């Protein structure tokens, strides 16, 4: 009996029950967000409850930080801003409203025309110059976004002409900017527009004068063919007291010179005619002696693109000798003929000894050289690295186009290897590499270049390696000096091994006729005695083998 009970108990406890597992479904909690409010429109509605202009201005400032509209709300927002503009006595608040209208137009491209029309209506009875200037600026910004609407641009042009008579310089500048954006670029209307803009070249406001020149530049960039007759007026602006006027006038002189290079102009106080590009080149060169660093930098950059200038003008930029203002010297025959036709008679001792002499104007005499004389020399010796950098780059651009000028500029570029600023040295090294096809290095120039290998900067040393690999040398002694200097430099800077090997491989490949006489010296070969073979693991032997086998 006990055995049966034990067996039954064991059966009950050893029985296994398998439960079926049903995976629970993943529950998602969906939250229905409340409808998004319209904070920008609500802030505009708060303008009606503002009790002071200061409070309204703070509200508008908050609005500019949260300027997001639904497309359907924009007409209502424009209407409310316009209504508050009409009732607002404070000009600062009205300026802010016009600025917000410009921002609203940027957000919604479809309502630009309506915003422009509304802005023009708001300016009709306006008396504040600041508000008018901001309104014109709003119209200008929005007009740039609608470049294909000719009717709108014509309307903006008429508005600009109307407000151009305003006494405020800010309003005039914005109107001139609109004329540059919307003005015609061809036909008689373009000539009349250019004449209108030219009347502001001598305005009493420096900012207006500067904007007038900038407007002409904008029209030229849009395709207008400029009349060279404005060249004289533009050149007069190069002597302006204000830097902003001189800089933009300098750019316009450069544009006129490149646009009509073969146009002949008459030099003042002279019967000689000169190509426009040559005279413009001399004017731009004069900018390298300007008092302002920004003007000098701009002049240095512009010189590099005037590739059509005559060779004698170009070569004069590297010579500081005094010039007669680039006037043509009269021959002895012409001087004698002038004496004969002078109408005066001498006492008989000397022919035409009492003939009238040339009247010299004191204002036309400059104690310092002018024009292109030594322009690049002045730029390379400038105290500011921006001017020196721009001068080196322009010198390189002109040298690439003119092989004779490249040989003349070689000494000046080599001297820049000793500049105190690393960036200037790098640009000078790269410039010499770019003009290497036009030059052959002399031994004295090569000595100066190799001296720069002592530079601590690895970028400078690797730049010199690339430059030496591209240049041609004139003598066997120069090539030997180059190889020995590179060997000494490799001992000092072992990390330059790959760059040095690559340089010597190119040097050997470019100068086979100079390497051949040096083979006995490099390999220590004696014509009579059998010397010990050099160690091929020696870096010196490796260098010599690279040069010879290349």
Overview of this protein structure:
It comes from Ignelater luminosus. This is Integrator complex subunit 4. There is one protein chain. The chain has 550 residues and is an all-alpha fold. Among the domains are: 38-146; 452-458 and 466-550, no CATH class. Helix content is 60%, strand content 2%. Helix 6 runs antiparallel to helix 7, helix 8 (150-163) packs antiparallel against helix 9 and helix 11 runs parallel beside helix 13 (243-259). The chain is flat. The relative contact order is 0.04.
Radius of gyration: 39 Å
Query: What's the number of extended β-strand segments?
Result: 4
**Amount of beta strand:** under 5%
Tell me the overall shape. flat
**Total of DSSP H or I helical runs spanning 4+ residues:** 28
Ends apart, CA distance between termini: 111 Å
GO biological process, one term: snRNA processing
Organism: Ignelater luminosus (Cucubano)
Protein name: Integrator complex subunit 4
InterPro entries: ARM-like, ARM-type_fold
